[in-house]
Amino acid sequence: MGLPRKLKNCNAFADGMSYLGVIGEFEEPKLAIATDDWRGGGMIGPVKIDNGLEAMQAVLTMGGHEVALIRKFGATSADGVRIRLVGAYQADDGSAAQAVEIYIGGRFSEIDPGKSKPGDSTEHKYTVPLAYYRRVVDGIDEVEIDMIAGVFIVDGVDRYGEIMAILTN
User: Fold this and answer.
1) Fewer CB within 10 Å: C terminus or N terminus of the chain?
2) Given a cut of 90, is residue 169 above it in pLDDT?
3) Which residue ranges make up each domain of the chain?
């Protein structure tokens, strides 16, 4: 029997600037394989055919007005906004904390400043469609996806390497 690792605390960095105490929430991208049904002659039912990856998107929620992030809106490069998120996960069973780092590259497609009222908390949400995603756990790369460069590595296995080798030779 065990206990789940829960996020104990987190921080975000953009252009080397720390948002410790400012980052409120981070929604990681869903990782999904794009598929189509295929049923050929002689098959008794369809199978899902791998067509690459679905688009990825992350959402950051900051605890207020951050002009440095607002100034990144309209970046012309698909991966023009680079953000590093760091989380400390720990189970309440006495085990050591686990470091999880998320590296994302994209551009803000939407900045939602929400409602502002004197004396109330404010939150700004930044929606980031991603061109790049990397997840590192305790210093080990678990997943790296670079949509533009054709990189799709999971647990050290380059899932797209054979295809990219054909395309680049």
Assistant:
1) N
2) no
3) 6-30+56-140
